[in-house]
Amino acid sequence: MRKKIVAGNWKLNTTVPEGIELAKAVNELVAEQGAADVDVVLGTPFTHLTSVVDAVDTERIGVASQNCAAEAKGAFTGEVSVDMVKSTGAKYVILGHSERREYYGETSETLNKKLALALEAGLTPIYCCGEALDIREAGTQNGFVKQQFEETIFTLSAEDFSKIVIAYEPIWAIGTGVTASSGQAQEMHAFLRGAIAEKFGQEIADETSILYGGSCNAKNANELFANPDVDGGLIGGASLKAGDFIQIINAY
Ligand code: PEP
């Protein structure tokens, strides 16, 4: 059975003490009332990783970085490698978020380097994909996201592909308060699962967790997660409040 996952993406928010406080609050709520069959992930800034790993029960909560370097080591000032991330105790790395693609020029080529390094280091990539508003309005979103797959995760071996988690995040829904409708999310997730089945076979497609991201919150998570092909969420804004985040974790 594929995993249900609710992952928070804190983005450029919280100082280290604030992040520890938030992680402890989430940890407590998950221990008290978190649905046992949902994997919980906290995607924190690099500076917080070690402290957040220490602050939570890592059997219950995985920690993620929001990016990693495209090189393994060396003269790359300001970069953070997969081995550095791994050495904090983090288990996941969010890759290809639309904000990184848009603001930091992250290309498929860069992403492929990061995916290979992450997999080699034993980190689980949470691979983000999704279309901008003009593409959705033109009705070409399915082909666009499939093309993103073809340039990146469809170049992986079946074995490596089966280690990744996918997050479908329509850009027009990220941080905008506009959520994809339940029907739009299901339609895209089913299409992507079909594309994965064509590429790697039905068994791998059935085991792949495809999360939805884009203004998912405590109010709408229930309806989104009720879809058969939506296996959880990548949550931005609503992951910064422990009380909201636990409601999303328990939205199944
Ligand atoms: C995100 O950036 O991954 C995201 C889904 O953000 P938000 O939930 O704030 O739309």
Layout of SSEs?
Elements: E1 4-9, H1 16-33, E2 38-44, H2 49-55, E3 61-65, H3 82-87, E4 92-95, H4 98-103, H5 108-121, E5 124-129, H6 133-138, H7 141-151, H8 158-161, E6 165-168, H9 182-200, H10 202-207, E7 210-213, H11 221-225, E8 232-235, H12 242-249
Parallel strand pairs: 1-2, 1-8, 2-3, 3-4, 4-5, 5-6, 6-7, 7-8
Helix pairs in contact: 1-12, 7-9
Bound molecules: phosphoenolpyruvate (PEP).
Phosphoenolpyruvate binds at residues 9, 169, 174-175, 213-216, 234-238.
What order do the strands of the largest sheet run in, or round the barrel if closed?
Answer: 1-2-3-4-5-6-7-8
| Overall average pLDDT | 97
Q: Please give the number of β-strands.
A: 8
Low-confidence stretches: none
Helix content: 40-55%
What series of H and E elements makes up the topology? EHEHEHEHHEHHHEHHEHEH
CATH architecture: Alpha-Beta Barrel
Number of helices: 12
Output the CATH topology: TIM Barrel
- The amount of beta strand, in percent, is 15-25%
Quick one: CATH superfamily? Aldolase class I
Q: What is the radius of gyration?
A: 17 Å
Structural overview:
The chain has 252 residues and is of the alpha/beta class. The chain has a single domain (4-249), classed as TIM Barrel (Alpha-Beta Barrel). It is 44% helix and 16% strand. The chain is built from twelve helices and eight strands. The protein has helices spanning 16-33, 49-55, 82-87, 98-103, 108-121, 133-138, 141-151, 158-161, 182-200, 202-207, 221-225, 242-249, and strands at residues 4-9, 38-44, 61-65, 92-95, 124-129, 165-168, 210-213, 232-235. The protein has an eight-stranded parallel barrel with strand order 1-2-3-4-5-6-7-8, surrounded by six helices. Helix 1 (16-33) packs parallel to helix 12 (242-249). The radius of gyration is 17 Å and the shape is globular. The protein starts with a strand and ends with a helix. The model has no long low-confidence stretch (mean pLDDT 97).
